[in-house]
Amino acid sequence: MKETISARRVRELVGSLPAGPIHAGLADALTLLIGDGRIPLGVRLPSERELSAALGLSRTTITRAYASLRDSGYAHAAQGSGTFTAVPGGHERAHDRVLVAGGAGEDWIDLSCAADSAPAEVMAAYATALSELPAYLGRHGYFPSGLPVLQEAVAAGYAARGLPTDPDQIVITPGALTAACVVVRALARRHGHALIESPTYPNVGEILRAADLQLHEAPLDGNGWDIAGIAETVKQVRPDFAYLIPDFQNPTGAVMTAAQRQQLGKVLRLRETRAIVDETHHALALDGQAMPPPFAAFDADAVTLGSMSKTHWGGLRIGWIRAPRPLLEKLVRARMSLDLGVPVVEQLAAAHLLRQGPVSPLQIERLRAQRNALIDLVGTHLPDWRFTPPAGGLMLWCELPHRGATALAAAAAASQVVLTPGPVFSPSGGLDSFVRLPWTRPVAELRAAVERIAAAWRRLEESRPLSAVRPRRAGAVF
């Protein structure tokens, strides 16, 4: 079944049209919405009659706007079925890759990875783990579900957040990405459907596609999640899964409110859609604010993924799954089809760290200082970029005045900065007017990186013909 977007929703997204020929303004507005992912690819647009009535425009105007979309490659017509969204070059645009500085020297600054260096506590945790290791050496050393001591520490963390959890509901994995692979391997059916946020963590889409799942996008805007729009998509598609990042969403930094979690949980349960909830950033509240309860507190069928990579260190390969009891047998079987457990020393170190708290206060202090510095630097050197200052997480999601993020990534690489353009985070293409800037490097490196990026941006702007420069549309996100 083809996904559709209602005329009412198109009217809300388009807003007011700019001055000039109405059909051209509407075509430009729809092009921007499709290119930035707010109207996903492969979606059937409203019929000309429906959109004419919703916008209060003549049907001729709608016909000319749709023709313009088709001519520019942002739509195609299927005889007898309607007009469907597209992007020039096709779906493979979604697979743009980050420019990696092969053999880069000390002068390179890598902003492609949103992960910090290890705090001092990690070394101490490994030392403690080594002192505890002899007690385990007389056994076989295989723990497919995880060491009981680590399962207990993870379960205690959920209980402290208001979600009672038994240790046997936890399956330990080498990171959240492996946890996602286990869940999809255990529960996915061939030719199924999955709902995925746009933008989102790039590897998520790859996991779901590898399981032969058809993806349907839930675009995020400046206000975060459009729960009504998601509900409409779920009703149409009835996806098997909905992959959500409700806490400091990667890459936007948005946080789903408790009311939104309750509403969306109800929608997913009603349609028997399983929520896979990525909580790898939930502990990174940098302003001391209380976070909403876990999504699973509102949807008991949700499967939750966690990790210590963002809160402690990426080299500590510890992640986990929190699952409803009826799913545990399937998940453990799927887990054992990959390997027989995470190394014991890593699990002992992780348990020691989690008993101290979800994240080190010194780590929060450092990340807060780096975030504030990055916000000031972007505001000073790139004043025409827009963003919503996140209250936590690890990254700034910046909107450029116009498309060109992929070109900027190439120009920045020429200045020895690696950054990630928006299309990398788009499951189906678009978002080329956005870039992600992590604040996970020291302030001095962030300053040098932003200065180089700003210089690259100025060079690109100076090379643009005046006819290509368009004013930013009112109501643009972030």
Automatic annotation (TrEMBL):
Query: Is Transcription regulation set as a keyword in this record?
Result: yes
Q: Which InterPro entries match?
A: Aminotransferase_I/II_large (IPR004839), HTH_trans_reg/aminotransferase (IPR051446), PyrdxlP-dep_Trfase (IPR015424), PyrdxlP-dep_Trfase_major (IPR015421), Tscrpt_reg_HTH_GntR (IPR000524), WH-like_DNA-bd_sf (IPR036388), WH_DNA-bd_sf (IPR036390)
Which keywords label this protein? Answer: Aminotransferase, DNA-binding, Pyridoxal phosphate, Transcription, Transcription regulation, Transferase
Q: Which GO terms describe its molecular function?
A: DNA binding; DNA-binding transcription factor activity; pyridoxal phosphate binding; transaminase activity
Q: Does the keyword Transmembrane apply?
A: no
Where does the HTH gntR-type domain start and stop, copy by copy?
20-88
Q: Which family does it belong to?
A: In the C-terminal section; belongs to the class-I pyridoxal-phosphate-dependent aminotransferase family.
Instruction: Return the protein name.
Output: PLP-dependent aminotransferase family protein
What organism does this protein naturally occur in? Castellaniella ginsengisoli
